[in-house]
Every structure is written in C-alpha cells, then in structure tokens.
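Discrete fold record:
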Amino acid sequence: MDKNRIYITVGKIKDEAEMQSFVDKAKSECEKLTDGFTCLTDLRGYEYQDEIFEKYIKEIQEFFLARNLSKVARVHRWSGLLGHMQFDYVSLDLGYSGKNVTSIEEAEKILDGEE
C-alpha cells in the first residue's frame, strides 16, 4: 500500500478455474490501490500455458489499464522464457509493455524510478 503497488506471483496454473480465481483475487487487491499504481509480476515459477489462458491474462491486464496502471516490471528466470513472453504478447496487443528483469530487486528499482 505504501508504494501503491500490486505484487503478483504466478506459478503453475492447473486449470481455468484456478486461473479465474487468480484474476478475481488480483482485481480485488488492485481495488485497494489508487490510480497510477505500479505492478511487479513474479513469473519465475510460471510455465507457458495453453492459449486459452491468454483471455484471463488479457482480462486482468485490461482491468489494470482501466485503473491507470503506470508501470510494470516482470521477473522471469533465464531459462524457460516462454512464460513471460505470453504476458508480453498480450500486453503489447493492449498497447503497453513491461520491463523484463531477472530479480525482484531490479524490478523494484525500475518501479521506484531508480533505473
């Protein structure tokens, strides 16, 4: 709350019901923030999902944009880069992009305007 930032950690998603629950929780937490919030998404445990899951990614990204999201940083691991690319493709389709980094510390610096 102090940083007006939502922190999201996405791991392995087993089915659409779990993904919808994730989206609902992210929206609920986002409602606690003010316009211009930032988002740190930790995708180090995320595995590329079937394309059907992209509608959920798009839903949450559209919701965040409607709430005036200002900056996004995505943390990914060096190997298995496909997971973060799925988030990238959807956000580019919506007209924005996030910075991709490999550590939480680097993401924090970007979102705090230090880098």
Summary: The radius of gyration is 13 Å. Residues 91 and 97 are 6 Å apart (CA to CA). The longest strand covers residues 5-9.
